[in-house]
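Fold this sequence, please.
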Amino acid sequence: MRIAVPNKGRLHEPTIDLLERAGLHLENGADRKLYAATVDPDVTVLFARAADIPEYVADGAADLGVTGLDQVRESGAANVAELLDLEFGRCRLVLAAPEDGTIESVDELDGRTVATEFPRITRDFFDAHGVEPDIVEVTGATELTPHVEMADAIVDITSTGTTLKVNRLAVIAEVLESSVRLFGREDVLEEPKVEEVRTALSSVVAADGKRYLMMNVPEERLDAVREVIPGLGGPTIMDIANGGGGKVAVHAVVDERDVFEAITEVKRAGASDILVTEIERLVE
């Protein structure tokens, strides 16, 4: 099983970290290599440009790929299916025009010029709106094209919107919301190893932002604790060895943002010996 991952750029390190946390440790490093073995003898990692990964998967050079949804849509690669949203590398592909200009809607771009690094996505977007602009493909500095009279509007990637504001561009419409996904070639989706990899990565994604909360609770206060603890599917109640002195052990998975309030509430409800730990993986 070969997994293609970004070889550099902002997606490289988060992807390698995700593989490591999922237990697919790279045995011979990820720097300046075309491929790396993992601790699983059946899984090899290939390093490629993020934009090329969909074709690697579609053409059979890799079985699975990790890259942005925007890259997959732009490639138009056939026989490639999405398996999992890995929930990082979030960004938006937006249609924008000069904020002091006259263009305020998609319809106003019929017959006008739109510059972009994503001509396929852009064309599909305008086709869906029944609008036919002149789409000009550029390879960088897209946000400058309206100011040098190369284009009337642009379709470009934005994460925070800062670059658009700096270049005095206003968003007219959202074209695509993207994040990094796990993709697979359709003819390998039923293979057991594919499901193993998907489950391993999914368990890491599910554990992000979660904490494991453990405490001892007097049995007569159990209902009060149950009412305030924000458990994932409800807390787990267990007997304590040697009787527990009338107490039971209560375990629950909670969102990290709820931990502070949860500790306060369960302590008030009668819990003691409260312990909070991180969760590396969570198989749901």
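The two ends are 24 Å apart (CA to CA). The helical segments are 12-21, 53-59, 69-75, 119-128, 162-166, 192-207, 222-228, 259-268.
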